[in-house]
Amino acid sequence: MNWIYLITAGLFEVVWATFMKLSHGFSKLDYTIFTILGMIVSFILLAKATKSLPLSIAYPIWTGIGAVGSIIVGVTFFGDKIGGLTWVFIALLLVSIVGIKITTS
């Protein structure tokens, strides 16, 4: 169950980062509220996950999910341009996240 908390927390990190972009520097109240709610949910779920998962495992996975997810949202919805070599490093980040999960007992 803690892995589900952790993965969901990472997805909510993508949610709050996306809404933060849409809030235009917290100048749009509705998106600002969604940003704060996303942060709260993400942090609560991360806290639940770290009750039994080591911080040295949970935090990198949480941030990795947030990083890769934010890149995907940026490219898909905001038209961000990512170079070919950058995609290689994004793939390495994904491999690292999966590798951490696989090698954790």
TrEMBL record:
Keywords assigned: Cell membrane, Membrane, Transmembrane, Transmembrane helix, Transport
Protein name: Supressor protein SugE
Superkingdom assignment: Bacteria
RNA-binding recorded as keyword: no
Molecular functions per Gene Ontology: transmembrane transporter activity
GO CC term (a single one): plasma membrane
SUPFAM superfamilies linked to this entry: Multidrug resistance efflux transporter EmrE
Record InterPro entries: EmrE-like, Small_drug/metabolite_transptr, Small_multidrug_res
Location within or outside the cell: Cell membrane
TM segment ranges: 33-50, 57-78, 84-103
Family that this chain belongs to: Belongs to the drug/metabolite transporter (DMT) superfamily. Small multidrug resistance (SMR) (TC 2.A.7.1) family.
Keyword Acyltransferase: no
Mode of membrane association: Multi-pass membrane protein
